[in-house]
Amino acid sequence: MTNFATALLTGQTEQHLCSAVEAELLGARVHREVVRPFLQLKDEARSSGFDLQILSGFRSFEQQLSIWNRKATGKLAVLDSNAVPLEIERLSERELVFAILRWSALPGASRHHWGTDLDVYDLAARPEGYEVELIPEEVDAGGMFCPLHEWLDGRIAADAAFGFFRPYERDRQGVAPERWHLSYAPAAAAYERGLTTELLRETIQKADIELKEVVLQNLDEIYERFVTNISRPFA
Ligand SMILES: [Zn+2]
Fold first, then answer.
1. Measured in angstroms, how far is the CA atom of residue 175 from the centroid of ligand 1?
2. 229 C-alpha to ligand 1 centroid (Å)
3. Which DSSP category does 76 fall into?
4. Do 232 and 166 contact (CB within 8 A), yes or no?
5. What is the whole-number distance in angstroms between the Cα of residue 181 and the centre of ligand 1?
6. What's the gap in Å between 223 CA and the centre of ligand 1?
7. Which of 54, 57, 89 has the alpha carbon at shortest distance from 72?
8. Is the Cα dihedral 217, 220, 225, 227 positive or negative?
9. How far is the CA of 119 from the centre of ligand 1 (A)?
10. What is the distance in A from the centroid of ligand 1 to the CA of 226?
11. Residue pair 200/223 in contact by the 8 Å Cβ criterion
12. pLDDT-derived band of residue 234, with 50, 70 and 90 as boundaries?
């Protein structure tokens, strides 16, 4: 694998991303191949009364590392499956690693590194001054963004979502269900194959990451439960 390929897979380059002008238009940086299909999806959403917006697109290794290290050291809340903060001092290091992984990817293993994956919401349904959190109560039945997601479900089921699907559609005992997280399958599929445990191990070994030894000891399980364990389109 080339250096560029390993850097792309693990969030350590930005060369695959769209232009600054496109990022301005979308409100986020994404993979350059995602711009057109996202704008098509956004257009269709607009016709149905939704203002589809990206809250978070590309995220670098350094950004993911910062989230991880702050959660590992108690500077950022670690949430349980119901999005309730945990008392991390009561957890073993292994329990803490798996608790963080429920809502936050291991640095190097986030699909946001690829720029193919996006967290979305409906600006038209967001109350004035409300800060979007990306939590289940926003997207579940009765939530402000539920209608958008029901519409998206329909598009995805009809294979009319321009290549987007939901990798975290249901609870697979790995990453929590994240209805807001969309992935552009045509570009992401190759990256899924490229991100091996070996590459992840090398990346973690080189990183200044909290809980490094516990992560390395449990890496095969982490890889199976949180990296490859996704809902796949048409499966
Ligand atoms: Zn996401």
1. 10
2. 15
3. S
4. no
5. 4
6. 17
7. 89
8. positive
9. 5
10. 13
11. yes
12. low
